[in-house]
C-alpha cells in the first residue's frame, strides 16, 4: 500500500468516526445541504444524500452513521431504501448506483441519463425503478437486470416521479405538465397546471399531490382531474413527503419553512421552522407522526408533525438567517431565492452552487474547486451586472444552456437592478 493510499484510507476512517460521533449528538455528518432522505419500511434505517457528493446510511435506533457511501462525482439528489435492504443513490452526475449495505462500492451502476437525476421512485411490486432527469426524460429500470426504457415527452426538466398503487407512473416538470403514464405501453395522459412543478407524491388511495414554484400544492384524482389546492409556502416548494396513512403531507419550501397539510380537509395545520436557509428534503417515519427534515446546514432534524414540536433537545430551533444583516434591503429580498444554492462569502460552507464572492469580473465556470458542467466551460461570459441581469431576464436554460442551475426568471427590471446592485456591494473582495 502506498503512503498516499494509506493516508486516504485513514482520512476516510477518521471522517466516518467524526460523522458517527456527531450523529450521536445531532445527526450531523454531511458537509453540505441534505438534498434527499429515505426511511426503511420498518423505520429503523435512514439513507441521506447531500450536495457534498456522499450518502450516509444511518441507524435511527442509535442515531449513528453506519456507513458513508462515496461514488458520485457530483451532488446526490435522490435516494431509496429497498425492502431487501439494498440502497440506491442518484445524482447530478447522471448516474444511479445500487448498493448493498456494508460494501464499499456499488453492486451496479445504471447509466443512460445525460443530465442530473433529481428524483427516484420504486414500483409497488418492487421490480422497477423510475428516475426523473433534467435531460427531459423519465427512465424505467429493471431492478433485477438493470435494463431500461425511456419515456419521452416533457419539454423541460423533469423534477419528480411517483408510482400509483395500481402501478401507473406519474411525472412532473418545469414544463407545467403532469403526466400519468400507462405501463407497459408508455402512453401518457397529460395535465397542464398553472405553475412549474418541483415534486409529486401519491397517496395510498391514489390521489396525486404536486408541489409548484408558486408555493401551492395541487391535488388530482388518479385520472388527472384537479380536486383541491392548498397554499403551502410563500416560496417555491421543493420537496414533498406523505405519512404512511396518507393523512398528512409535509411540504418543504425554499424559504426554510415546512408546511404540514391535512390532506382530507385541504388545510394548513402548522408551519415548522423558518424563515431561513432552505429545507431540501422531508420524510415521515412509519409512525405517521415523526418527520425528518434535511437542511441547508447539513443537519437532519426530527419533528413531531402533529404538534409541531422538535424531537430531542439537540434538534430544537431554526438555523440562522444568512440574510438577517441585510433586513430591509430590496436587493437582498430578491436574492433570497438564490441563497439556497449560493453563498456571498468564501468563508461560508459551500452550497449546491459556487460561491458568489468576487463574482463581478470572473469568467463563467472558472472558480477553482467547483465542478462546473462541460457546457459552461466553453462559454465566454464574464459576470457583470449586465450579464447577471440578462441571466435572470431570459432564464438560465436560455442564457447558459447545459447549466445545473434551476430555471428561474426575474420579470421586473427594477428587481433585476436591485439584485445586481446588491451583489456588487456584498460580493466584492
UniProtKB/TrEMBL annotation:
<keyword id="KW-0249">Electron transport</keyword>
<dbReference type="InterPro" id="IPR020472">
    <property type="entry name" value="WD40_PAC1"/>
</dbReference>
<dbReference type="InterPro" id="IPR002327">
    <property type="entry name" value="Cyt_c_1A/1B"/>
</dbReference>
<keyword id="KW-0853">WD repeat</keyword>
<keyword id="KW-0349">Heme</keyword>
<feature type="repeat" description="WD">
    <location>
        <begin position="151"/>
        <end position="191"/>
    </location>
</feature>
<dbReference type="InterPro" id="IPR036322">
    <property type="entry name" value="WD40_repeat_dom_sf"/>
</dbReference>
<dbReference type="InterPro" id="IPR015943">
    <property type="entry name" value="WD40/YVTN_repeat-like_dom_sf"/>
</dbReference>
<dbReference type="GO" id="GO:0009055">
    <property type="term" value="F:electron transfer activity"/>
</dbReference>
<dbReference type="InterPro" id="IPR001680">
    <property type="entry name" value="WD40_rpt"/>
</dbReference>
<keyword id="KW-0479">Metal-binding</keyword>
<dbReference type="GO" id="GO:0020037">
    <property type="term" value="F:heme binding"/>
</dbReference>
<feature type="repeat" description="WD">
    <location>
        <begin position="27"/>
        <end position="68"/>
    </location>
</feature>
<keyword id="KW-0408">Iron</keyword>
<protein>
    <recommendedName>
        <fullName>Cytochrome c domain-containing protein</fullName>
    </recommendedName>
</protein>
<keyword id="KW-0677">Repeat</keyword>
<feature type="repeat" description="WD">
    <location>
        <begin position="110"/>
        <end position="151"/>
    </location>
</feature>
<dbReference type="InterPro" id="IPR036909">
    <property type="entry name" value="Cyt_c-like_dom_sf"/>
</dbReference>
<dbReference type="Pfam" id="PF00400">
    <property type="entry name" value="WD40"/>
</dbReference>
<feature type="domain" description="Cytochrome c">
    <location>
        <begin position="326"/>
        <end position="427"/>
    </location>
</feature>
<feature type="repeat" description="WD">
    <location>
        <begin position="272"/>
        <end position="313"/>
    </location>
</feature>
<feature type="signal peptide">
    <location>
        <begin position="1"/>
        <end position="25"/>
    </location>
</feature>
<keyword id="KW-0732">Signal</keyword>
<dbReference type="InterPro" id="IPR009056">
    <property type="entry name" value="Cyt_c-like_dom"/>
</dbReference>
<keyword id="KW-0813">Transport</keyword>
<dbReference type="GO" id="GO:0046872">
    <property type="term" value="F:metal ion binding"/>
</dbReference>
<dbReference type="Pfam" id="PF00034">
    <property type="entry name" value="Cytochrom_C"/>
</dbReference>
